């Protein structure tokens, strides 16, 4: 099983997976945009949960990760917790996930940067100002979207490993020379990035439109969210952070 999975990792198959993840992320954006900003969700002073200090969103994410860790989520090398500190072990039988990644850089986790980007940069673009009291639902929408974004960005490790295996002779001298810029240049495909950005904006426009049985009205109604938020997310953060993961991974690929 593990072996068969390993055999299907090619740059083309990983890119197909990245394309499918776009759907999850765009739906996640739509789901979060359903709620207004609901700032109490993020206010450390609001929740006042006995035995817990922090915001409601932290409470929801930490507790969800705690349950999901026990249910085995983080035994999969594609999954990365936002709060890895003090997570309980899995309580379920282990599955032989493919050990495709190089052991050292396999542990890279940039969720702290993703968390910061999400709350400082993305959320103000996505959520309209207002308060409808649905703080728990808002935090649940944040959790799914954060997990989808994190999964896509950390997928960069698999992309980097495939790129390395396809051309070790090109990567090895740059890695040995710790040439960060050289590695970045070698792994970059500007035409692919351009295609990703354009497709994401198109998908966001299509998925975000109201659908009616009168086909003349499709696309003319109000939108569920601003589709340029999705393309800006990809251009400004998703692609740059995926590339950051790829560079960090490759620089430690020979350790
Ligand atoms: O498709 C790749 O080669 C990737 O590494 C993914 C990705 C992206 O984030 O979409 C990142 C870097 C490349 O320049 C192109 C696209």
TrEMBL record:
Entry's Gene Ontology cellular component terms: cytoplasm
Keyword Cell membrane: no
GO biological process: amino acid biosynthetic process; aromatic amino acid family biosynthetic process; chorismate metabolic process; prephenate(2-) biosynthetic process
Keyword Chaperone: no
Enzyme Commission number(s) of this protein: 5.4.99.5
Enzyme class: isomerase
Domain Chorismate mutase: 135-246
Name the UniProt record assigns to this protein: Chorismate mutase
Lineage: Eukaryota, Viridiplantae, Streptophyta, Embryophyta, Tracheophyta
């Amino acid at each position: 099983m593990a072996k068969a999975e390993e055999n299907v990792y090619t740059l083309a198959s990983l890119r197909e997976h990245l394309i499918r993840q776009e759907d999850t992320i765009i739906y996640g954006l739509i789901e979060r945009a359903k709620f207004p900003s609901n700032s109490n969700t993020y206010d450390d002073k609001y929740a006042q949960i006995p035995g817990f200090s922090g915001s409601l969103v932290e409470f929801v994410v930490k507790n969800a990760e705690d349950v999901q860790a026990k249910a085995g989520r983080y035994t999969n090398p594609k999954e990365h917790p936002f709060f890895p500190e003090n997570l309980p072990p899995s309580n379920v039988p282990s599955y032989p996930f493919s050990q495709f990644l190089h052991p050292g850089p396999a542990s890279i986790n940039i969720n702290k940067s993703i968390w910061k980007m999400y709350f400082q940069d993305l959320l103000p673009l996505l959520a309209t100002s207002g308060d409808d009291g649905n703080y728990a639902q808002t935090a649940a929408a944040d959790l799914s979207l954060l997990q989808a974004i994190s999964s896509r960005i950390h997928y960069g490790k698999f992309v980097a490993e495939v790129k390395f295996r396809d051309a070790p002779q090109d990567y090895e001298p740059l890695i040995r020379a710790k040439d960060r810029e050289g590695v970045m240049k070698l792994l970059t495909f500007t035409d692919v990035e351009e295609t990703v950005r354009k497709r994401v904006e198109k998908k966001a426009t299509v998925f975000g439109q109201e659908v009616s049985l009168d086909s003349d009205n499709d696309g003319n109604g109000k939108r569920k969210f601003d589709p340029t938020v999705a393309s800006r997310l990809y251009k400004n953060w998703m692609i740059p952070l995926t590339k950051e993961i790829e560079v960090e991974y490759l620089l430690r690929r020979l350790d």
